[in-house]
Records
---
Amino acid sequence: MSRIRLSRKDKKMFLARDPKIADTMSSLVSHYQLPKATAMYKEIDHVVALARKFNDEVVKPAYKEIDLEVSKNNDYLCWDFIKKANEWGLYTLFLPKMFGGGGINMIAMYPFVEEIASVCVGLSNVIGVHYLGVATLSASWNVRLINKIFREVKKGERSGNPCLISLAITEPEAGTDVEETLLVDRARLGTFAKKVEGGYVVNGRKIFISNGHVSTWHMLICYSDKKNPSENTVMLAVKNGTRGFSFGHHEKKMGQKSCVASELIFEDCFIPDEYICIDSDDVPKNASKTRVEVIQQVIDYVVSSTRAGVAAFAVGAARGAYETALEYARTKKVGGSLLINHQWAQSMLSEMYKNVSMGRAGYMESAYANALHGMIKSLYKPYLFYVNRWLPRWYFTMISPLLGLKAVTRLFRNINFYWYPKESAQVSSGWASLVKFACTDLGIENSQMAVELMGIDGCRHDIGSEKFLRDAKLLQIYEGTNQLNRMNLFKELVGRDMPEVQIF
Amino acid sequence: MNMKSSANSISEELQAFSDLARDFAARELVQQREENDRYPFGELFTQSIKNAGVVGFFGANLPAEYGGVGMVASALAPVLENLSMADASMACIVFTNAAAIEIINQAARETDCAKIYRFIGGPDAKPVAFHSFTCLEEIDMPRADAKGIISGRLNFIALAEFARYAVIPAENPDGAISYYLVDLNDGGVAKTGPVYSLGLHACPAADLSFNKVPGTLIGNPGHGEIYFKAMQSHLSIGAAAISLGIMKGSFIEAFEYTKERFQGGRQIINWSEVRMLLANMAIEAQVGESCLASACRGNESGDNGWEYSARAAAIHIGELACRATVDGVQLLGGNGYMKDYGQEKRMRDAKQVQCLLGMAPVRKIDYIGRIIDESE
Ligand SMILES: Cc1cc2nc3c(=O)[nH]c(=O)nc-3n(C[C@H](O)[C@H](O)[C@H](O)COP(=O)(O)OP(=O)(O)OC[C@H]3O[C@@H](n4cnc5c(N)ncnc54)[C@H](O)[C@@H]3O)c2cc1C
């Protein structure tokens, strides 16, 4: 400690200034707030090794072929890959043990998807986007449905019939608007759920739904009132085979071809009460938060965890592009000497390495912000963390019926909606947006640099670098365009506490 | 901004040729863009290629006595730019053929190339294949013996799929490089199927291997590098024009879309963040246009040092187009990523076009190398 004395009051005053440690250094804060670091580290190094093995045995032998196959036949679905991922337990790996999952902590998911994406972003999405569905359902804190559907995913793993979950929110006329409660009331919405006896009847169309055709459950976000959608947002769980629900066309995409983007069609589709994840009736009139605030909270929970995931995909893309270019430079001769021995090429490769490393540091910071403030924060309370880690699976199966009790859902909702401080959401949501646009921009930058370094060889499908560029572009668009994410960062961290600020 | 081609700024005379390209693009390319972009490569737009020959695009820099138009490189710029606004694949076919012919034109300054011109000219002439996406520094060269018998491999030769002749470089026994005209129907030539690449699917390339294939020497032996560098300067104008055309096409589509699309209760063009993206694109297109116009003027009048502006234009506009087309996709949101719109193809094409005439960093190092050499 230095000899300059700081009074408690002084210290508090200085630390209250921006940037605050709690806003910008979640990874540091987590050292004393999260469970024992070695326990978490062990899970992370386990899944990174698992991902590398999976890459060697499953992804690398298949990814280029799948990309070509979809180029030839846009309706091709990569079921063989999905079955393999299911067999390897990848669709339950990060589900909490109390719901039948592998119980690996969510921080570990980010380096895991980076690994897969460093070979193929599309296939990484085929795994990762299932967890977008998982996150959406989880954010409703409908513990009964979470327990039911997650256990079906586990059953699908055992039976060899993959049971995946998708998220359906985007509509033909509303993309950006449905990601933000401040905009949704001005949106041109087309998918509505009408309250009827015993449930809802849904009509409308959702588009661009990743993994749509290969998922069993679809977390559908729609609206029960045209006039006031932000207050009347409904989340329904729709299962394949429900009457009135069907799949439309597969989008013809530039990249990430292995991950189908589907149209979902609802025609007088009746969804019974038991499959309502959350609707406005779930928010009591006298609650400490308004309906809109609760819905915004649900959206924030989802996107805070998934945008960090998109950032990890992007770092995977940036890394894959870098690694491909590096290998190429080691054997390619330019002007008589190896490309890797041209100083300008070394400089470009260092730049690419820097992008990957900065990106990874960024998304990990966001992952820590989620662990401290996000949807999964309760799972990082040391007692829950160790309960999840050490108690045997049969114990959770035994108590499973209790999770169906309304009181359990009420308790979780109280903790996660009504007792949840606003500042927490600002850090996790702000950081998720920050890394989402920063890393996805780096993904494009590295993919472009790889092509520049490799010249026309970088454009060849058989060499593999061009695919990173095609795949990476999507990352700037979905999970809220990078423009929307800049606005969200502004709202959450830059312009907060400034009364004169107006957004949208 | 002037969304017509830069031809206006060059000379009135070229307007007719430029308009021809625009009509051709509208008639032959726009409708079939998605179909021509498909994989596997089907019936390529054979008829369109023939028609392009009929209207004279393949003879632009071919001397008049062999059935060409005999224009300088700058005359080709508006054609390439207009074609690229619709579909850069056709522009790259025209470009590749012009690059091959330019090698011969350069050789013809030193030797009589009538025989070679006669091979490739004529009323039914097909475009000539060439390594338009690589420079000599990066090529793994085949070898030619003293009699011009060629053996070895050459990767990514554009148009080799359907051209009759190719202009190719080969290393002579003394290590020097010469150019040869080879008949791709020769039994010693083996082609891979079309290489599946990032963009420009309707301008396919193939990897070639040569097993004792007789080549006809073009120009003086060992002068390959001289011809290539001269061609590179001339065709840099073409490469710049293609990048500019793609960039303008991307801007126009983004501009129209953002006026039609509503989010947040207004046309998205009325969100200032969207305007900022559009502004960047418009400014880049404008800057590109000025660069290209200046390079064209220099080329037309033979100004001292025009090669510098041509080469700088190709490098700079190539970079601008890669950046701008990424935003061009972004402005259409999810739709921009789909083949139903032209933007994703433009983003892919722009990146591949940046490789025309060789790796961009190598061309940059070469550029400063020239300046250094001259200063000494
Ligand atoms: C391949 C793919 C997979 C996808 N997967 C899923 C999925 O699984 N589930 C799902 O629900 N959705 C999915 N999406 C949809 C995705 O989230 C949307 O595409 C995205 O939110 C953008 O919406 P949009 O496409 O309607 O673009 P728009 O909202 O129309 O945006 C067009 C442009 O306008 C800008 N813009 C719009 N509004 C504003 C504003 N208020 N201020 C400033 N700029 C603005 C945008 O930034 C963009 O540049 C997917 C999309 C794609 C392409």
---
Amino acid sequence: MSCARWASLVAGALTSAALFAMPVQALPETAIVLNSDEASMSVVDRQSMTEIERIPVGREPHHLILTPDGKDLVVASTVTNELLFLDPVTARERKRVRNIVDPYQLGYSPDGKWFVTAAYRLNHVDIYEAKDLRLVKRLPLHSLPSHLTFSADSNFVYFTVQGSNQVAALDLVKQEIVWTIDVGEAPAGIHVFPDQKRLLVGLTGEDAAVVVDLATRGVSKRIVTGKGAHNIFKMPADDKRVLITNRVEGSMSIIDLEKLEVVDTIKVAGGPDDVDFSPDGKIAWVTQRWRRRVAAVELSTRRILGTVLVGRSPHGIYINGPHTVSRSVLPPPERSDATAATKR
Amino acid sequence: MLESLTNLWADLQGRLLEIVQPLIHRFGLTEFYDDVPAGLETLTLGILQIAVILLIFRPLESLAPAQRWENRKLVRVDVVYTLLNKLGIIPLAIFLILLPLNDELMEFTRTVGFVLPTVEQIIPWLRDKPLLLFLVYFLLYDLAGYIWHRAQHGLPWLWALHSLHHSQRQVSTWTDDRNHVLDDLLFDIYLAIVAILIGVQPGQFVAILLLGRLIEAFSHVNTRFGFGRVLDKVLVDPMFHRTHHALANPAEPHIHDTNFSAVFPIWDIIFRTAHYDYKQRDSGVDDPVADADNGKGFIGQQIAGLVRLGRAIARSFSSRSARPTPAE
Ligand SMILES: [Zn+2]
């Protein structure tokens, strides 16, 4: 029989199981990494730069988010349609919620009312009641809705629609898609400017991020970053700068949102994808999807301090602390005011 | 050791991807980003296997052959099968053919949210015993393979295709990949369904993954060398699998309907199909139509397999219509 092929699958299957190391220990100095090509998450000790534990979860976990109260970390498994609620510090499981269909990207509205998911493979987006995760509305969105972000007033969710090269706006009040616009090849990461008037969108099929003007609903500026421009993250304690990963280029660009230009570039090989920041805001931890590693990058020196081998295709990453990008609620109002003041 | 191997492998894959993904990007094939890593890994594993075949298995055939051949002419076409398979050409073709089906299947499983319990959920005790858990999965997949292989021998239209694998008179390490492409395709569909039922994820024990594949290439090696009378009940060796490839004869008309297991003989032992008599026999099929594969090239064999399949299907229909209706 045709043995070679099945054997590879077999052996693969088996390895799933592999490596569930060591008993549990609450270590605050950790990063939680989702191994999206497996059914596991890795707990990495940021001090010793080693993987200390590999915990089984549902199949193909890609992204994670904190609950609005910040008390639970929600890990979403796309194939097994489940959400795992964890203690964000110890990574211990608190509860499991089933029947959340293909939860690829996920987020809570800043007012804490809605929980929204993008079903990347099934081409729809879902609105759930945040408090009990009851499905309120399912809207088709073709094709490959990939990333999402909320307006500060919780009235809109903006999605990148990777397969059709578009950005779509979902009105959370009307609960319908109110507009879609073309932005460029394979849009991925999406970020609302602090002024709430523009969006920044990473174009993975190109080498740039584009600025979308919400008033005119058009692309007003193109910022060249690097090949495979992908996901976008607010810099620690800084509303004016964002970091964008360039997956194909193997780099991260820091974009100044006022000057609308790249102000710094950091080399990180291996298809850098998601990022989270250390509690002091000085180190960016980056998942290197093609290298099965996470890299620790010191932002001030642009130096890679080290890398840690984790599971296959590491994607979402979480670091417990004030600068995590996985917070769903807005930063405290005084900081937004300060931004507004400096703007004027 | 295992960790440094995993390390090495992860870095090799990473570096290769850093060369290949920019090409994918340049040609605007961004929708395949997520499929490229698996494809590239399959290819590198294939190259590694070819290296092992050339460096270990082939010398073994020369040093301690089970059968002595005047020449290796009939082997050549099997080398073509091996290269087409291990260098990813046939798997890629099948991947592209099955892409729409695979999408349907994936959409279905995701919509339903298949949450069949995994082995470690049923037996939580196994959770922190990775090697043991690995073994359980390995055994389960081997069982699935065993069942398919029984079907290949038991169902006439599947045998029409599988007989191509058996028609080789000069069974060698290259014969492992000698299969009808349609046979491969059907098996992949079967496997996709099994994977949904049992659960499967790509893992990282590449060392063990390689081992699994290599056992099968090894089981076809034309050599007297075996694992011995104890270990050959644990793992399939050339002697065991050679009996499966034996040429049926009037005294042993079903000798090839034994030893179906690909990796673990335990399935043959449990289902009473194991046959250990350590007798050297000629290889091949006692059907002149299938035996005519010998001497044909790759294309010729593929066509011959399809013709046999057509006839088998036609026969099954005619025999059905010839049967008296139950009312009479
Ligand atoms: Zn057979």
